[in-house]
Amino acid sequence: MKRVTLIFTMIALLVLCGAVYAKDYEISKKAGDLSVQVNIDKNPPVTGINKMTVAIKDATGKTITDVAVAIDYGMPAMPGMGAMNYKTQATLKGDKYLATINFSMAGPWSINIKINRGDKTQTVKLNVDIK
To answer: Which residues contact 79 (CB under 8 A, 6 or more apart)?
Structure first.
């Protein structure tokens, strides 16, 4: 009996250690000549507060820090429920842009990251399934 308890305890510890070191939700996309790396601190993203990091590089691989980054996110209308649409601004910290996103319910969400540089706007479109 003690051996079985010890084995289950070891398995539980291994599972918990794996959850603690789970990798962020990560996706790379192109927006015109820009490469955009998006990270969300939970994998998979969950209902409630999620922290998003956006890193932007030009065609030569140089980090871009002179843009305005706006994030529009929402969930389409469903039977008995209207569409949900939210907006937030990302702020520059170091060489990355940081934003907080609050997903109000589980399901499919779309995220549009708008990168404004001068008079030019480029958009990265993502679809995520919130748990």
So the answer is: none
